[in-house]
Design brief:
Layout: H1 2-16, E1 36-37, E2 43-44, E3 67-68, E4 73-76, E5 83-85, E6 98-101, E7 103-107, E8 110-116, E9 122-130, E10 133-140, E11 148-155, E12 160-166, E13 172-178, E14 189-192, E15 202-208, E16 212-217, E17 220-226, E18 231-232, E19 237-238, E20 245-252, H2 260-265, H3 275-278, E21 282-294, E22 303-304, E23 308-311, E24 321-324, E25 380-384, E26 387-397, E27 403-414, E28 422-430
Parallel strand pairs: 5-6, 22-24
Antiparallel strand pairs: 1-2, 3-23, 4-21, 6-9, 7-8, 8-21, 9-20, 10-15, 10-21, 11-12, 11-20, 12-13, 13-14, 15-16, 16-17, 18-19, 23-24, 25-26, 26-27, 27-28
This protein binds 2-acetamido-2-deoxy-beta-D-glucopyranose (10 copies).
């Protein structure tokens, strides 16, 4: 998944790298005026201060919002109404269990994560974090070269636990983990099974405790990683994922990465003229169910409430995190963690304060360009500052080849690109 991370660093930096973007990294923290460091190393306010805001490189420890605390939940994905679009999510996890970016559709008691032609795919993220716990997800992967379906845990300091399916091999998940985003490619291991993951649902489980991580497929243990096996002599620490993390499930085009290594890993370049792109009009994965079970936080952790996880140190270790009553949401996208509920800043919907599609939720990206080539479009068009919205009536076919009528609203927004480039957010909702 670090491959994915690098892909989007490139992908997003293409979108954002104008003279005015302010970057952040281990040697350069964000300035006070744009105090929040996104996972892609760009400073900002608003959405930048929510999920995956990195406390290590932000202006100070108040910049990022605390993360919503774990809650046991079971979601049967029967409707896209269960998912909140990322640009409507202000951090209040009492109002949303799942947040998405990209294109979601509902079909037959499941939700489709779609990846239309030339898009960046789709990611759904849990609104809440878990600090040890288990998550079980029932899904069908996509398929074909360059197409990756992933289910991961991802923390604000980039601890990560992964399952990834590469669409050229439908009998296997690659598992991996990372500690504080350090790129160490030697930790991957494969979990194989006998039936095709594109045609059949598989139940993937990550069981994450203070002592071990276990990856289970259909109830069978595929891999166990013990913390005591992750001792790193150079770092003098256990390089084990140990900070509160969100759940992310995604479909993304590794095969359109500019990095040859990523394309090779993904089985080659993605084919944007593949049969799926003609019918139903997108690559797709299905998610049917997700169950989150929270475990106790680490022994010895400071507990000053029951609402959120908050970093009290910038090392990114487990011992930097406390449990608090502090709020997790912003009143508007003009705010930051300094004064999250100040309403006199107004309800600024300036797109500069909202992460472009794909940047704010985990490693994945939203669609770039327009939706499937076979969509018939344009009914209503209206423009706001920097935005054009199209309400589109699309006759499309579902993955199973059944024609359904869909209403799709595309927001074409002009971001600050070096060249002329624009991003299209496509919100699609089936209406029958
Ligand atoms: C967005 O940011 C760009 C680059 O910094 C700036 O030129 C533009 O005025 C900003 N847009 C708004 C609406 O603030
Ligand atoms: C951090 O960012 C600055 C400014 O973009 C850059 O000069 C520096 O090399 C970066 N440091 C690291 C460690 O990447
Ligand atoms: C962080 O900076 C803001 C703005 O200057 C300030 O209000 C806040 O108290 C600072 N927080 C910490 C923990 O230093
Ligand atoms: C996992 O399987 C892929 C092929 O699907 C292979 O390229 C890779 O080397 C395998 N990884 C390990 C750790 O065996
Ligand atoms: C690591 O921990 C596991 C379970 O706690 C234990 O079974 C195993 O023997 C330990 N291994 C080492 C090298 O200490
Ligand atoms: C230990 O961490 C260093 C620095 O991140 C890394 O280069 C090295 O590969 C790690 N060693 C092991 C055995 O994982
Ligand atoms: C959470 O903490 C508040 C006070 O901080 C308390 O009133 C409430 O009962 C607690 N809720 C739970 C579920 O423990
Ligand atoms: C916490 O992180 C720092 C910096 O990464 C490291 O030097 C230190 O040893 C860590 N402490 C523990 C208890 O792991
Ligand atoms: C809220 O924001 C406004 C505008 O930035 C500022 O003038 C005001 O002092 C803030 N209010 C509080 C209570 O900090
Ligand atoms: C801004 O708009 C959102 C969504 O419409 C709303 O939830 C939020 O309360 C508004 N904030 C303010 C300051 O009006």
């Amino acid at each position: 998944m670090k491959v994915l991370f690098l892909f989007f660093v490139y992908f997003i930096s293409g979108l954002l790298a104008d003279d005015s973007s302010v970057t952040c990294n281990e040697t350069q923290k964000c300035p006070e005026s744009m105090p929040c460091c996104s996972q892609y190393g760009i400073c900002g306010i608003g959405s930048y201060c929510l999920g995956s805001c990195d406390p290590r490189y932000s202006y100070n420890l108040s910049a990022c919002l605390p993360s919503p605390i774990c809650k046991n939940t079971q979601t049967l994905f029967s409707s896209v109404d269960q998912l909140t679009k990322i640009d409507k999510f202000y951090g209040d996890a009492t109002k949303a269990d799942w947040v998405y970016d990209g294109t979601v559709l509902e079909y037959d008691n499941s939700v489709i994560l779609a990846m239309p032609k030339n898009s960046g795919g789709t990611v759904i993220s849990s609104a809440r974090y878990l600090w040890y716990g288990s998550v079980e997800v029932k899904l069908k992967t996509s398929h074909l070269a360059g197409v990756v379906t992933a289910f991961i845990f991802f923390s604000d300091v980039q601890d990560e636990i992964d399952y990834e399916n590469v669409g050229v091999d439908l009998y296997k998940f690659q598992t991996n983990y990372y500690y504080k985003g350090i790129l160490d490619y030697h930790h991957s291991a494969n979990v194989s099974f006998n039936d095709n993951s594109f045609e059949n649902y598989h139940t993937l489980k990550i069981d994450w405790t203070q002592e071990y991580v276990q990856w289970l497929v259909n109830g069978q243990v595929g891999r166990t990683l013990y913390k005591n096996s992750t001792w790193n002599e150079t770092l003098q620490t256990y390089a084990f994922p140990q900070t509160p993390a969100r759940v992310q499930i995604s479909l993304w085009p590794a095969g359109s990465s500019s990095a040859a290594g990523t394309r090779d890993w993904a089985g080659g370049a993605i084919d944007w003229n593949a049969p799926d792109i003609a019918n139903p009009g997108y690559y797709y994965a299905f998610i049917q169910e997700a169950t989150i079970t929270c475990y106790d936080p680490p022994s010895g952790v400071t507990i000053n409430g029951n609402n959120s996880y908050v970093y009290k140190g910038v090392n990114g270790n487990e011992t930097d995190v406390e449990i608090s009553d502090a709020g997790t949401f912003l009143k508007s996208f003009s705010n930051t963690g300094f004064d999250p509920l100040n309403s006199s800043t107004g309800n600024n919907t300036n797109s500069n304060n909202t992460l472009p599609s794909g940047i704010s939720s985990g490693n994945n990206g939203g669609p770039i360009g327009v939706s499937g080539s076979d969509s018939t479009s344009t009914s209503i068009t209206y423009t706001k500052a920097g935005f054009q919205q199209y309400a589109t009536s699309v006759l499309t076919k579902t993955a199973q080849g059944i024609a359904v009528k869909a209403t799709s609203i595309s927001i074409m927004s002009l971001f600050t690109c070096l060249g002329a480039c624009f991003t299209s957010l496509i919100i699609t909702k089936l209406i029958s």
